[in-house]
Amino acid sequence: MSGAPPDAMNGPHEVLTMGRISVDVYPQQVGVGLENVETFGKYLGGSSTNVAVAAARHGRRVGTITRTGDDPFGRFLHRALREFGVDDSMVAAVPGLMTPVTFCEIFPPDDFPLYFYGRTPAPDLRIAADELDYDAIRAAEVFWVTVTGLSEEPSRSATLAALEARGRAGITILDLDYRPMFWVSREVAREQIERALPHVTVAVGNLDECLTAVGEDEPRAAAAALRARGIDVAVVKQGPKGVLAQDTTGTYEVAPTPVDVVNGLGAGDAFGGALCHGLLSGWDLERAIRFANVAGAIVASQIACSSAMPTTAEVETLLKGATS
């Protein structure tokens, strides 16, 4: 692991995330079912914490708000966050609950089944509104939350309270991150997403997640529907067809970066952390999504997620090679 610069914890967070955390237990054998796997690797996981790690790899001051179990896996996650340069002062253990563990199977190029354990109930869905540091939430330059945080109480109320406290200040991002196993139905998820959208300035999701959020899975229609709900920047990930993004200056499409895909699960989180970096850097939208797309491709070419998050220099190197 490689941490952020020594001053990464000083001053308000440049990026503050809130949401799911877990221990990812990934097979070291590719192309076989879990019943045939002999060895596994253990990694920090969870979408919002992976985004935090990805942003920290670009030298940003980063923190995360989440909950673990009071157990050895929880202690592992605290240690991993600190080693990656992520402020864990708003990460607490929930007595009586176990830290979630997520297993996956790896069938490249596009089949990566996930199996969630320890999420009934999940500690990160026990975050309560009265536990939040609203000053830190308001002060962060980027605040990133996920749709999974809206799936259950008290996390649902806490997520909405945090967004309302932000008042659309700075860059407020909703990761559409729709996971069917965490919801009763797509319709119930859409109801909660509709409550959150008025409070955010950026929405990021793939085509299925956009279908859940706004009832559209054609890229331009999905982006337009998100923008019609007051979103400043809509980012629609199209998998092998690349990324489409839309803001007040126009609509931009970026082709995928060719790589040999090993595990696509962390690519979206690498994209998210890199997007945060690009937006904070004041880049135009096309440059930001092109950079983020390459960051995602780098992680997709490796088994691990968090520990595979690239540095800015690594992304720039591949980006230059792709455009030369």
Could you list some keywords that capture this structure?
alpha/beta; UDP-N-acetylmuramoyl-L-alanine:D-glutamate ligase; 21% strand; globular; single chain
Structure characterization notes:
This protein has 324 residues and is α/β, with parallel strands linked by helices. The protein is 34% helix and 21% strand. Helix 1 crosses helix 8 (267-280), helix 8 runs antiparallel to helix 9 and helix 9 (285-300) crosses helix 10 (312-323). The two termini are 31 Å apart. Mean pLDDT is 94; it is low at 1-8.
| Average predicted local confidence, pLDDT | 94
CATH architecture: 3-Layer(aba) Sandwich
Structural class comes to alpha/beta
CATH class: Alpha Beta
- The CATH topology comes to UDP-N-acetylmuramoyl-L-alanine:D-glutamate ligase
Low-pLDDT stretches are: 1-8
Tell me the count of domains.
1
Biggest sheet, in brief?
Answer: 10 strands, mixed
Total beta strands: 14
Strand percent estimate: 15-25%
Radius of gyration: 18 Å
The ordered string of helix (H) and strand (E) elements is EEEHEHEEEEHEHEHEHHEEEHHH
Shape: globular
Helix content estimate: 25-40%
Number of helices: 10
CATH superfamily caption: Ribokinase
What oligomeric assembly is this protein in?
single chain
Give the CA-CA distance, first to last residue.
Answer: 31 Å
